[in-house]
Amino acid sequence: MLTGKLNGIPAKVLLSNRQYAALRLFTDERTSFVMDTDNALLVDQRSFGSLFHRGYIQYEKSRGGFVLTNLGKRARQVFDDTDIFRKQPSTTFSSYIRTIKALTRTA
């Protein structure tokens, strides 16, 4: 679901619960955090690999492990800052809500 770009990454970032947890390993640490290969092997490789292939983390041989990229930092920020509130709350409910309201009315 790509709906444009925001600072070089899709404006809507889709992360699974495993991808988000793997990304948090890097974003919750200090900015100079380096994950060595021994520790990287402990992480679910599907989610870890997807972060690598998306460019959210990269391997830096000189630092001896995987590091968070600026793209990864931004992906976490976009994911965390996703707005769930309606732009026009005074408009009518969606058909799903109207149906639920109709079903819950008492006579």
Keywords:
4 strands, two-stranded antiparallel sheet, alpha+beta, 107 residues, two-stranded antiparallel ribbon, 5 helices, single chain
Describe this structure in words.
The protein is α+β, with helices and mostly antiparallel strands and 107 residues long. The chain has helices spanning 17-27, 37-40, 45-54, 70-80, 95-104, and strands at 5-6, 9-10, 57-60, 65-68. The strands form 2 sheets. The chain has a two-stranded antiparallel ribbon with strand order 1-2. Strand 3 (57-60) and strand 4 (65-68) form a beta hairpin.
How would you summarize what this structure contains?
By secondary structure, the chain is α+β, with helices and mostly antiparallel strands. It contains five helices and four strands, in the order ββαααββαα.
For the sheet with most strands, the description reads:
2 strands, antiparallel
Which range best describes the helical content: under 10%, 10-25%, 25-40%, 40-55%, 55-70% or over 70%?
40-55%
Rg, nearest Å = 20 Å
Secondary-structure element string: EEHHHEEHH
Quote the average pLDDT. 82
Tell me the span between the first and last alpha carbons.
Answer: 43 Å
Q: Stretches where pLDDT falls below 50 for ≥5 residues?
A: none
What gross morphology would you assign?
A: elongated
SS element count, helices: 5
* Count of DSSP strands: 4
Name the beta content range: 5-15%
Strand order of the largest sheet: 1-2
Helical/strand content category: alpha+beta
List the helices and strands and how they pair.
Blueprint: E1 5-6, E2 9-10, H1 17-27, H2 37-40, H3 45-54, E3 57-60, E4 65-68, H4 70-80, H5 95-104
